[in-house]
């Protein structure tokens, strides 16, 4: 059996790479003709995609560095690791709220600038500390926009801290809803949430619908003195509008993970150097999760946590050969696949067909061998994007 080749484009946690057994995989950063790519921040937008590529694994949640549509058009599955870094981001959001509420950054800078002996410093501290008077979190209201894996953790920990929490996510999944503290209140719109919150934390993906989600009009709805936290993606917030709101005294603080020349040094901005998932635990979790998904896809064809393929899980049939077909989501594709198999007298032992938007995916277990000619015939069907036989 030929080994699968996994090419890494960034430094990937060894705990993840160890999930690929050496007797079945080659894993390196300089491999040619890879079956899979594992990456973190490396961009694939200008990279030539090898014809052998079957899967891309992003060891993190966002996939802005991957041309997902182009991968879909070639029948290449793209995987990510939703929730694997959720605890790390949750902790940073809580840190951000405390930094803003207790004026930690400004007070640290004040102390760092002190001079003199112990007595002089003590006098300066007592005289200066009043300007850094803050407030406590219990009783304050946190609004969470986006109740995915991270948003749910943020909402729940805020409840534990004694805050009132309201959330908005019209597309919340059943699984995430079950994880959400029952006392979290539902907002019916972004506007309602903004108008009621002392803190607002953003946890939505960057898509066309969320670009500049927080703009000048919506900032005008926020409570005077509120704090905005953005540990999602920079363009979700109209930064110029935020800086104007800070300048006008409407916002207390803007806490984000995305420094810019415009925001750097602004007294109302607490900008961190993209630390959201920068813990060893998060890197390990993301690498393990995405490695397991890519391996499962290569070895069984099963799809879990793909950003472009539908979820598709079919137990392997003993003694059967497996066929995996990605195609455009148009009528009669399953019929055409079945016809090709019937002409070759190949009996279907099990079949699963799933669709997601414009893409469909079919797993077929057939009795007997799968001749190469069958794969060629399937590839010739109009609308088929990729075909592969999976070795047992």
What secondary-structure arrangement, pairings included, does this model have?
Blueprint: E1 4-8, H1 14-17, E2 25-28, E3 36-39, E4 55-58, H2 68-73, E5 77-79, H3 86-101, H4 104-112, H5 118-128, E6 141-145, H6 149-160, E7 164-168, H7 174-179, E8 185-186, H8 190-196, E9 199-202, H9 216-219, E10 226-230, H10 239-247, E11 251-256, E12 269-271, H11 280-300, E13 320-328, H12 333-343, E14 348-356, E15 359-367, H13 372-379, E16 384-390
Parallel strand pairs: 1-2, 1-3, 3-4, 4-5, 6-7, 6-9, 7-8, 9-10, 10-11, 11-12
Antiparallel strand pairs: 13-15, 13-16, 14-15
Shape: elongated
**Measured on Cα atoms, how large is the radius of gyration?**
26 Å
Number of helices in the DSSP assignment = 13
Percent of residues in helical segments?
A: 25-40%
What is the helix/strand order? EHEEEHEHHHEHEHEHEHEHEEHEHEEHE
Largest sheet: spatial strand order: 8-7-6-9-10-11-12
Uncertain ranges = none
Distance N terminus to C terminus? 9 Å
* Beta fraction: 15-25%
Which structural class should the secondary elements be placed in? Answer: alpha/beta
Question: How many beta-strand segments?
Answer: 16
Mean pLDDT across every amino acid position: 95
Major sheet details: 7 strands, parallel
Description of the structure:
With 392 residues, the chain is of the alpha/beta class. The protein has 13 helices and 16 strands.
């Amino acid at each position: 059996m030929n080994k699968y080749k996994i090419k890494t484009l960034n430094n990937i946690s060894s705990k993840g790479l160890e999930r690929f057994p050496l007797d079945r995989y080659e894993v390196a950063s300089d491999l040619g003709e890879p079956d899979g790519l594992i990456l973190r921040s490396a961009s694939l937008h200008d990279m030539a995609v090898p014809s052998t590529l079957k899967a891309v694994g992003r060891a993190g949640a966002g996939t802005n560095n991957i041309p997902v549509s182009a991968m879909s058009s070639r029948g290449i599955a793209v995987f990510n690791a939703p929730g694997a870094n959720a605890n790390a981001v949750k902790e940073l959001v809580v840190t951000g709220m405390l930094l803003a509420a207790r004026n930690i950054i400004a007070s640290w800078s004040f102390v760092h600038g002190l001079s003199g002996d112990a007595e002089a410093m003590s006098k300066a501290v007592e005289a200066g500390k009043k300007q850094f008077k803050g407030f406590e979190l219990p009783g304050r209201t946190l609004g969470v926009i986006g109740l995915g894996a991270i948003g749910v953790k943020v909402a729940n920990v805020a409840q534990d801290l004694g805050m009132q929490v309201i959330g908005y996510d019209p597309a919340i999944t059943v699984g995430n809803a079950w994880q959400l503290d029952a006392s979290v209140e539902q907002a019916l719109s972004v506007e309602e949430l903004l108008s009621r919150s002392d803190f607002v934390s953003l946890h939505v993906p960057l898509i066309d619908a969320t670009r500049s989600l927080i703009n000048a009009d919506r900032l005008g709805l926020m409570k005077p003195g509120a704090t905005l936290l953005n540990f999602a993606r920079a363009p979700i917030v109209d930064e110029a509008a935020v800086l104007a709101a800070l300048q006008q005294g409407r916002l207390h603080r803007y806490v984000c993970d995305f420094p810019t020349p415009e925001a750097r040094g602004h007294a109302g901005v607490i900008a961190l150097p993209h630390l959201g998932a920068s813990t060893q635990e998060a890197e390990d979790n993301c690498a393990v999760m995405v490695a397991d998904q890519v391996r499962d896809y290569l070895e069984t064809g099963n799809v879990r946590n793909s950003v472009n393929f539908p979820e598709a899980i079919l137990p392997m049939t003993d003694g059967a050969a497996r066929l995996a077909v990605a195609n455009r989501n148009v009528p009669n594709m399953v019929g055409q696949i079945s016809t090709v198999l019937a002409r070759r007298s190949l009996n279907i032992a099990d079949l699963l067909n799933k669709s997601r938007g414009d893409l469909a995916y079919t797993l077929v277990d057939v009795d007997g061998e799968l001749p190469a000619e069958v794969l060629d015939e399937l590839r010739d069907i109009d609308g088929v994007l990729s075909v592969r036989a999976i070795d047992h």
